[in-house]
Amino acid sequence: MSKGYMHTTLLSLSTLVLVAAVSGCSPYKYNDDDNLCSKAKPLPPVVVVKDELNSRLGDVADCRTLKYFKDAQAKVTYRVGTAFEEHNLKGLLTVYDEDGQVLDQKGVDPTIPKYEFELAVQGNRPYYVEFKITEGQYAYQAQVQFTKLDPCSKCTADEECVDGACQPKVEVCDPACDDDAGMACEQGRCVYQCARSCKRKKRRGFICEVETGDCVRVRKQCRPRCQSDSYCNYRKGRCYKKKPANPCAGGCKPGTICKDNKCIAIGVKTEASPIRGRVASILRAGTSSILYLNRGSSHGVKKGARGTLCGKFKISVKDVYPARSKARINKSIEELGDCKSFTIRR
To answer: pTM for this structure?
Structure first.
């Protein structure tokens, strides 16, 4: 073997060893196949992904894709170096949506070790984070965390959250509606609660019963008018105290117990009468509807109670207020039509 041939062989082996030594010194495997977002590798939730960029070796770009199964708020964090050790990378971090539109972008500088992006992501749609450098060699860490979106965070001061959707608030009436005249507050307006024919019958001794929406015969008016904590018995023309929300609050007599807000004799089986009333207003909620009922906790309505609308549609009470309650029904406004009367089981 000639000396020239041996010299050339040794030189080639030395070059291979040098390249292997340079490539092997990195603690992270180069991902040469993720330099394009079309080949992006996933950035799993919570997991810290480690990688490295090296401009000297031509590894100048990495792209990661992130996806979540439902709408959420994503927080993407990239760390390069530490607060006490500068890195030497210079470049850009860019966030894209699936259409390639730039959502956010930050310049990478050796003096900045941490880069964060926050964005709202749509369920099962891909988003991309591209890390592209112009110079330097350094390892980095990437992580994404997803948090559930508050569906009502976009509600305005004039709206309230109803089953995850922003709906107009139920407005109060000021001044208060005249219930003796058959008026009740609906969406900030005083609305007559009975059929219009009841107004014509008023001269013949009939009056609109606000709570039930029935046109009842009046025999005697209460003079002076009853106070707010009382009601007028039109048959006798006298004011009577309204029943408290819990008649058992003061305690039951010996030999009786409180059941269904009533003091009953021990051992006596009773079946509480259902709560009846009318729908004050209806709001659309997708293919369902939200009902505001003219019965509340003062009438014995409880959260979670079930009943029917017009005796055929099932309803479920979601929220209860003193004089009103809110129920949901799996029917559209069009399907309900003029149906207004409801019955709730105690």
So the answer is: 0.42
